[in-house]
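Sanity check. The docking grid for nicotinamide-adenine-dinucleotide depends on where the pocket ends up, so I'm generating a full predicted complex first rather than guessing from homology. Inputs follow.
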Amino acid sequence: MDLGLKGKTALVMAGSRGFGRAVALELAAEGAKVALCARNEEDLANTAEDVRLVGQEVWGGMAGSVLTQALDVTDDQAVRDFVSLTESELGPVDLMLVNAGGPPAGNFEDLHLDDWKAAYELTLESAVRLCQLVLPGMKKRGWGRIVQITSISVLQPVENLLLSSVLRPAVQALTKALSDEAAPFGVTVNSVAPGFHNTSAVQRLIAKKVEQTGCKPEDVISAWTSDIPVGRLGEPEELAGLILFLMSQRASYLTGQCLVSDGGWVKKTF
Ligand code: NAD
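Predicted complex below; grid placement will be based on this.
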């Protein structure tokens, strides 16, 4: 299927590892120009090289345009500068993946007000800022795709993840509200809600559990997968495929949606 993404300019936030990295690689394979940011410069440089190689392998010669910037998505000026640089170097942004690290774990009594403020800045404010910077241009040009990564915590609170369970639904509400405003201008806004996927974030979670409890990594994984009908963790490429479809020309009638990718974990009819 031709996704119609060749030559498009894509902004991929938090893209050196995990889902962001998988999306950047898929975009390059589709012939898109990719602007990537994340916090760690070294990881970012390695991912950028892989993205460039994939683009050149598939499209040859001049393909594989990648721009990188090490930044934190909560840094207002750094994000503004990165969007401007992307537009001047790669062209106006057609596709945007709104993504960041997850807010820290904890239950109500573990969390101070400062934790709530930091989680708001990381999860909701950063998404609002990016949409403010990119959506008006997409509307003016009459085409665009915004995809936000949330979590299955938009559907039900997840144990020990209170900050995510409260703030992610607000990101979904932003998705839905913006989709209404953007739809008449040919711009779609959707989100994806992943369950457990095998990214570096989940590997860190497994290592922490092993350290805390002395159990084996496979015990942690099987405790999770026993509730997942597909019987395994997802791979980042599986979520990336879904995101690429949402970004494609083909997904022009899909907007305001939250697509859940969880191997059947959440038990809800609708
Ligand atoms: P990951 O740790 O594998 O990769 C995260 C990437 O984000 C890295 O490139 C890191 O440098 C970058 N990053 C983190 N915080 C940043 C910040 N403040 N500014 C800029 N870059 C930042 O994580 P992942 O699994 O790909 O997770 C991505 C998002 O998906 C997170 O919000 C996570 O909570 C959410 N999520 C993940 C899963 C899962 O199973 N992996 C499930 C549900 C939700």
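Relevant for the grid: The chain has two domains: 9-195+236-261, 197-233.
Also worth noting: The radius of gyration is 18 Å.
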